[in-house]
Specification:
Layout lengths: L2 E3 L18 E2 L5 E2 L9 H5 L5 E3 L1
Antiparallel strand pairs: 1-4, 2-3
């Protein structure tokens, strides 16, 4: 099960460097590619606004 970034995302960039498989793409709200996400949770651990959760 992949992680999901909600509309609460502030596009701060904290998560993008944490993803070991580069599944996160930048934008007004960052997005996680579910086909690449390995469900490691590294992104959720560093999100300052808790916008990332299991889908």
């Amino acid at each position: 099960m992949a992680y999901f970034i909600s509309d609460d995302c502030t596009a701060c960039g904290s998560c993008i460097d944490e993803c070991p498989v580069e599944a996160i793409s930048e934008g007004d709200i960052y997005k996680i590619d579910p086909s690449l996400c390995t469900d490691c949770g590294a992104c959720a651990d560093v999100c300052p606004v808790e916008a990332i959760s299991p889908a």
